[in-house]
Amino acid sequence: MQDAKEIVTVRDVRKRFGETVALDGLTVTIRPGEVHAIVGENGSGKSTLAKILSGVLNADSGEVKVLGETPLDPIQARKIGVATIFQEVLVADNLTIVDNLFAGTDTLWRRGRSPADARRQSREMLLRFTGLDLDPDMPVRNLPLSVRQWIVIARALLCNPKVLILDESSAALDLEATAKLHVEIRKLRDAGCCIVIVTHRIAELIRITDRATVLRDGKTVGELVGKEITEANLLALMSPKRSLQEIRPETRNPARIAAGETALSGSRIGVRVGAAPFDFTLRSGEILGVTGLDGQGQSHFLRVAAGILPPFSGRIAAAEGGAERPISSLAEASDHGIVYVSGDRAREGIFPNLSIFENFAIALYRSCFGQFGWIRNGPVDALYQKERQRLAIRAGRASNRITSLSGGNQQKVLIARALAAEPKVIVLDDPARGVDLQTKRDLYIQLKAFTAGGGAVIYLSSEIEEFFDFADRVMVFRNGSLFRTLSGTEIAEHALLAAMFGHTDDIEPLVSKLEEAS
Ligand SMILES: Nc1ncnc2c1ncn2[C@@H]1O[C@H](COP(=O)(O)OP(=O)(O)OP(=O)(O)O)[C@@H](O)[C@H]1O
């Protein structure tokens, strides 16, 4: 029986996938009018829970009730009032914005809405969320990841849900956009809706949630309320056996980096028409952060640095044996030891039809060919085992499809692939997206070890907390160009935020102001 004060009841729920136990007697209670976070390490069962509440999966046993009913399929879940925004950004690339927004809602939500109304509403919503006046009839194919993410969010909001589930939904959003999403979440909460958030962005979670349930190995291991929701408490519950590994500021070594050789450089780089050109240097041993509000040129710069796109103007060069080797293609970048890990995992990262092992090994086969072109699996297998351990990848059989892994574990496979190629420079586009807190720290430690061995890292993130005590310098982009580079102790919230919003001096924290203004 469901208590009247409960909107979602999950009691002793079990769910297996073959040999893998995803949920092992899970119990969660969610009340109306609360923002409830579901937290846990990669593979702890969060998305499985989200899918069960959305009717995408059914529990093997146990009780699942949402407003008194058990969601058995997605259509029924929607009728009960559940709207879910899944981890992967699910849009139909060839359909228009308006069709994507109203896709699957034709019978319930579109009724009584004329095509002109739907277009107007699409335009207004996206203008409010993204600040862009987008033609509702344009296909979503060429829109940036963040706009596609907003389309998915807007689609869920249009359903007027009673239970809104966000599974890593802010992961593709920048700071300003996340503040806007929080405003929408609070509005829904105040109207009595309950919001279930699955996120690894701890700073954000602390800001927005009323209650957090922590999962470990498919079980509930604790519930935190209000002020109890702190990073230390969450970590202690999520992975009590693993020591809290801190990245200490003293691991930064400005003198060593200044003396390091240039690994990659760019002169008079222009990443878009009319934007001011800039120079940059990446030294061996350095972690160079890259950030900016969405669409300020930083993602483009990353692709230029990795040889994926040519710069609009200027040139990029890798240093080798004291000489400069120009980079103008991916092949040249790869020849000079530069590897790239895309942030758009679903589109550019994984090969969904291949196994976990094949996804890991695909870039390594070139170096592991035996006589007559036979692939020597042995060395690759040894590397796979090493990298799997190094990044604590939770995977069943290596021959299972990569899509059987949780989102965070898929991301770890991509990072493992990059590290195993023994590059000189790793260019990472938001690599910690969807990766749990402990693994993030493990990743920072791996990257520190990589740079201590002479490697160099370019690391893009929209979550500025990632750079603290980690990056040696941070390039902040604005209006398609480099606005300011911060180094050492300058890398702190005020200064980063100020630069992102175009101020040259530090200013008071902007996040609360942004949320007030929205
Ligand atoms: N379709 C599937 N087939 C096989 N195994 C699966 C499938 N879906 C999930 N699993 C396994 O179930 C476990 C729980 O996965 P789930 O996606 O719920 O984790 P999660 O906590 O959401 O992780 P993440 O933070 O990485 O997204 C994992 O071990 C995962 O590999």
UniProtKB/TrEMBL annotation:
InterPro entries: AAA+_ATPase, ABC_carbohydrate_import_ATPase, ABC_transporter-like_ATP-bd, ABC_transporter-like_CS, P-loop_NTPase. One of its GO terms (molecular function) is ATP binding. Keywords: ATP-binding, Nucleotide-binding, Repeat, Sugar transport, Transport. The keyword Signal does not apply. Transmembrane segments: none annotated. Residues 8-242, 257-504 form the ABC transporter domain. The keyword Nucleus does not apply. It comes from the Bacteria. It holds the Pfam family ABC_tran. This is Sugar ABC transporter ATP-binding protein. It comes from Hypericibacter adhaerens.
